[in-house]
Automatic annotation (TrEMBL):
The keyword Cell membrane applies. Pathway: Cofactor biosynthesis; ubiquinone biosynthesis [regulation]. This is Probable protein kinase UbiB. The chain crosses the membrane at residues 523-540. Keywords: ATP-binding, Cell inner membrane, Cell membrane, Kinase, Membrane, Nucleotide-binding, Transferase, Transmembrane, Transmembrane helix, Ubiquinone biosynthesis. The keyword ATP-binding applies. It comes from Idiomarina baltica OS145. Its EC number is 2.7.-.-. The gene is ubiB. Residues 90-344 form the ABC1 atypical kinase-like domain. It is a single-pass membrane protein. Belongs to the protein kinase superfamily. ADCK protein kinase family. Belongs to the ABC1 family. UbiB subfamily. InterPro entries: ABC1_dom (IPR004147), Kinase-like_dom_sf (IPR011009), UbiB (IPR010232), UbiB_bact (IPR045308), UbiB_kinase (IPR050154).
């Protein structure tokens, strides 16, 4: 099985001429010779650009490789812009598997004899199908007799074995590239595949996705910006998830939205607000917000609300990352490149020994030409990409949370400008960031910190007298130990000095005795020897006896 898969991958790569993407000087002579010998696998798509050939090859290899290409399209630090742009067009279109097989998986996972025990009107034909799972519609039977429209997401059978096999091949290929390509250290192929493995395996666990959905729904409870469908966690398993069915318009259907009178400017601006709210308020953001996962509610076109689905990939940021990112964005708004450079060093994203002046100059060189355009024409996402690319020249390590953030920001900005081409993301984002920074650094931050820590302080307050008493007792013991240690050191030093004195006298006596013997004065030599022995005994007795206790 493995050898057949390797054969197919090699044939596909060569038939699409992907070997042309690697400069000949990077390939050992034996690989170039081997390629010429495989004349029965010619490049059949010479007329197509390299990016298109790569996209078509990945689509022909199947879902695991399609998703890998989608992930690579967000890593614009690794690929030329034209190839990254072409990979962004990869579509996750996969033929559905048998609906009756999906029904059996649901029955087995939920431990029921027949699907009719819990659901009514189960649609054997799937509503949608993708590489990892497919979705079926049904009605959930409520205890009060009502029926609730739901969708059931089912992981494809045996998909894990296929994914594991392809991931092993990817890791082997990445190891070869890392070893043989001169640019392998910068491209980090093994790290890229490792990152992809984690992302893909997370998507296979629908319990994780259900938990992500519940968290997002709680964050936007009663929100006018974003609606998250209800997940029925008691009916969800690792390979099955039951969720409320939503009624919305796909956000990519711009003509339909306009026909319904949706305020497109407000819709685009609300998309930006949803993103920044998730990132800076909640530190928990939907990291797969491409148009296929976003809908617009039909209720009020003048105040449009988003509906999100598919929560397999989420990103998180810690408090330090949030603050540094917000300060970075604001420094960019103000073209304060010195501040941007210092923030990267302070955050630990680049080494401490980085030359700030050189780093500042590099950032200015990249960004100043961008700012020559009107703000409305500048891509916020691409500025972030350029910043991270510049930082990596100064040994900035790949930050997974920033990669997801970069990918999501590119999605949001592209979506916003598709809905409303005049969208000025800078103008929309800056007030939000300034308000958030004021809340983090001003008196509101102090009040919030007191509120957050009040329960902890209230719990510890009754223990304070005992803690204070124990602390004072402990301090007294430490002081007593230090005093004993000092006295023992002084005594040891005094004994060492005394022992050294008598040792020197003993050595002098030995020298004198030997000299007297050499002069033939036996009586004097005997007396000197006896005296030397007595002095030596005194030196031995005076040696240090106290061992310092730690």
């Amino acid at each position: 099985m493995r050898s057949k898969r390797i054969y197919r991958i090699a044939k596909t790569f060569l038939n699409y001429g992907l070997d042309d993407l690697i400069p000949a000087r990077w390939l050992p002579w034996y690989l170039r010779f081997g390629r010429h010998m495989m004349f029965w696998w010619p490049n059949k798509h010479k007329e197509k650009p390299a990016g298109e050939r790569l996209r078509l090859a990945l689509e022909s290899l199947g879902p695991v490789w399609v998703k890998f290409g989608q992930m690579l399209s967000t890593r614009r630090d690794l690929l030329p812009p034209d190839i990254a742009l072409e990979l962004a067009y990869l579509q996750d279109r996969v033929a559905p598997f048998d609906g009756h097989a999906a029904q059996r998986i649901i029955e087995k996972s939920l431990d029921i004899e027949h699907i009719g025990e819990l659901f009514q009107d189960f649609a054997v034909k799937p509503l949608a199908s993708a590489s990892i799972a497919q979705v079926h519609t049904a009605k959930l039977k409520q205890k009060d007799g009502e029926l609730k429209d739901i969708v059931i997401k089912v992981i494809r059978p045996d998909i894990r074995e296929t994914i594991n096999a392809d991931l092993e091949l990817m890791e082997s290929l990445a190891a070869v590239l890392a070893r043989h390509l001169p640019d392998g250290r910068r491209l980090k192929p093994k790290e890229v595949v490792r990152e992809y493995r984690k992302t893909l395996l997370d998507e296979l666990d629908l319990l994780r996705e259900a938990a992500n959905a519940i968290q997002l729904k709680r964050n936007f409870e009663d929100s006018e910006l974003l609606y998250i469908p209800t997940v029925y966690s008691d009916l969800s398993r690792k390979n099955v998830m039951v969720m409320e069915r939503i009624d919305g318009i796909p956000v990519s259907e711009v003509d339909m939205l306009k026909a319904r009178g949706v305020d497109m400017k407000k819709l685009a601006e609300r998309g930006v607000e949803v993103f920044f709210t998730q990132v800076f308020r909640d530190s928990f953001f939907h990291a797969d917000m491409h148009p296929g996962n976003i809908f617009v509610a039909k209720d009020d076109p003048t105040y449009p609300r988003y509906i999100g689905i598919d929560f397999g990939i989420v990103g998180t940021l810690n408090r330090e990352d949030k603050r540094y990112l917000a300060e970075n964005f604001l420094a960019f708004f103000n073209r304060d490149y010195r501040k941007v450079a210092e923030l990267h060093v302070d955050s630990g994203w680049v080494p401490r020994e980085t030359n700030i002046e050189e780093f500042e100059s590099a950032i200015r060189t990249v960004c100043e030409p961008i700012f020559e355009k009107p703000l409305a024409e500048i891509s916020f996402g691409h500025v972030l990409v350029n910043l991270f690319n510049t930082a990596r020249r100064f040994q900035m390590e790949v930050q997974p949370q920033l990669v997801l953030l970069q990918k999501t920001l590119l999605y949001i900005e592209g979506l916003g400008r598709q809905l409303y081409p005049e969208l000025d993301l800078w103008k929309t984002a800056k007030p939000f960031l300034e308000r958030w920074m004021n809340e983090q650094l001003g008196w509101r931050a102090v009040v919030r910190s007191v509120k957050e820590n009040a329960p902890y302080w209230a719990e510890k307050l009754p223990e304070l007298p005992n803690l204070l008493y124990d602390g004072l007792r402990s301090q007294q013991r430490i002081q007593a130990q230090l005093e004993r240690h000092r006295i023992e050191q002084l005594m040891t030093q005094q004994q060492a000095a005394t022992s050294q004195f008598w040792t020197i006298l003993t050595a002098s006596g030995v020298v004198s005795s030997v000299w007297l013997i050499s002069q033939g004065t036996a009586a004097w030599a005997l007396g000197s020897g006896i005296l030397t022995v007595m002095v030596g005994l005194k030196a031995w007795r005076a040696r240090p006896q106290i061992k310092i206790k730690e």
